[in-house]
Amino acid sequence: MAVGPQHSAALTHKELEVLRLICSGLRTKQIAQMLGVSPKTVAKHRYTMMQKAGAGNAVQLLRWGIKSGFVSVE
C-alpha cells in the first residue's frame, strides 16, 4: 500500500502521536501513561489507524506509517 504524506489529514493528531510512539518501540501501557489516557484509548487509536491503513496487524501498520511519511526510521 503506497499512501503518501498528503493523506496526513486522514490521521488525527492523537493517532499520529500514538503511531510515532508505537514506532519508537513503546508498549500500549507505556504510551497510555505518557499521554495520560487509558490503555483502551491507545488500543482504540491503534485499531482506528489499522482500519484507515488497511492493515491487518501492527507490523503492516508500522510499514504503512513509514511509507506514508508519518514516521521515519533512524
Describe it.
- By secondary structure, the chain is mainly alpha-helical.
- The protein is 59% helix and 0% strand.
- The chain has one domain: Arc Repressor Mutant, subunit A, CATH 1.10.10.
- It has helices spanning 13-23, 28-35, 39-53, 58-67.
- The protein is globular, with a radius of gyration of 11 Å.
In short:
This protein is 59% helix and 0% strand. The protein has four helices and no strands. The longest helix has 15 residues.
Tags for this entry?
disordered N terminus; 74 residues; mainly alpha; Arc Repressor Mutant, subunit A; 4 helices
SSE blueprint:
Elements: H1 13-23, H2 28-35, H3 39-53, H4 58-67
Helix pairs in contact: 1-3, 2-3, 3-4
Proper CATH architecture: Orthogonal Bundle
CATH homologous superfamily classification = Winged helix-like DNA-binding domain superfamily/Winged helix DNA-binding domain
Q: Write down the domain tally.
A: 1
Order of helices and strands: HHHH
User: Using only CA atoms, what is the Rg?
Assistant: 11 Å
Shape: globular
Overall mean confidence score, pLDDT: 86
The unreliable regions are 1-9
Strand content: under 5%
* CATH class placement: Mainly Alpha
**What is the SS-derived class?**
mainly alpha
Number of distinct helices: 4
What is the CATH topology assignment? Arc Repressor Mutant, subunit A
Q: Could you give the distance between the termini?
A: 22 Å
The major sheet is characterized as: none
